[in-house]
Write a structure and sequence with these properties.
alpha+beta, 10 helices, single chain, globular, 2 domains, Glutaredoxin, Glutathione S-transferase Yfyf (Class Pi), Chain A, domain 2
């Protein structure tokens, strides 16, 4: 059976977990910390990043590589369109969410979520980049009703896990949600995805892990 390693607090872990649940793939979960120096973890994820998985064939890291493996190994129900170009457009949108929104906003997380401080220079740099990237994302995102169009796809796994973090982090640091300020009306979309049993399970497990972490 496939084993997913990481933490339910991690958005990239939840991106993968959401896909697994949507597809009905049996899997175990094992808690693993990011940036671990444990050789057992480094042998599966050389940078010590989470999530990673172990399969009967070996280990695999990087959330999008894992998503591609899941789609190929468990093709039903599909989370990518059958048409090659349409599938590429879903991948394109997922990359925008992961790399051009969440990864940029991540530089704010120490102040937004963990009581740290982000320098004014970093704040200004991140804001400028996010405003540019959000405008680009807005050109690609459909929200009709799903982020890539009419069907639930891999891009929704990324969007559900990461868009709220971008919104919360920017609101905490800048006093405004930069997604909402750019007229990206994502909250009704997050509510829609949140009605899916898979998303509800991810949310319940995330809240339980957060409560345990702060206990």
């Amino acid at each position: 059976m496939l084993t997913l390693f990481g933490s339910p607090i991690s958005n990239y872990y939840n991106k993968v977990k959401l896909a697994l649940i949507e597809k009905g793939v049996p899997f175990n979960e094992v808690l693993a910390s990011t940036h671990s120096t444990d050789e057992a973890i480094l042998s599966a994820s050389p940078l010590g990043k989470i999530p990673f998985i172990r399969t009967g064939q070996g280990a695999l890291c990087e959330s999008q590589a894992i998503m591609e493996y899941i789609e190929a190994a468990y093709p039903q129900p599909p989370l990518l369109p059958a048409d090659a170009f349409a599938a590429a457009k879903v991948r394109e949108l997922t990359i925008f969410i992961d790399l051009h929104l969440e990864l940029v906003a991540r530089d704010l997380y120490s102040q937004a979520f963990f009581g740290g401080t982000v320098s004014e220079g970093t704040q200004a740099r991140v804001r400028k980049q996010l405003e540019k990237n959000i405008a680009a994302f807005k050109r690609l995102a459909a929200f009709a009703p799903y982020v890539a169009g009419e069907t639930f796809t891999q891009a929704d796994c990324a969007a559900f896990a990461s868009l709220p973090l971008v919104g919360m982090a920017t609101r905490a640091v800048y006093g405004e949600d930069l997604l909402a300020a750019a007229a990206v009306d994502y909250k009704p979309y997050i509510k829609l995805i949140g009605e899916r049993p898979s998303a509800q399970q991810v949310a319940v497990d995330r809240k339980a892990a957060q409560a345990q972490a702060t206990a």
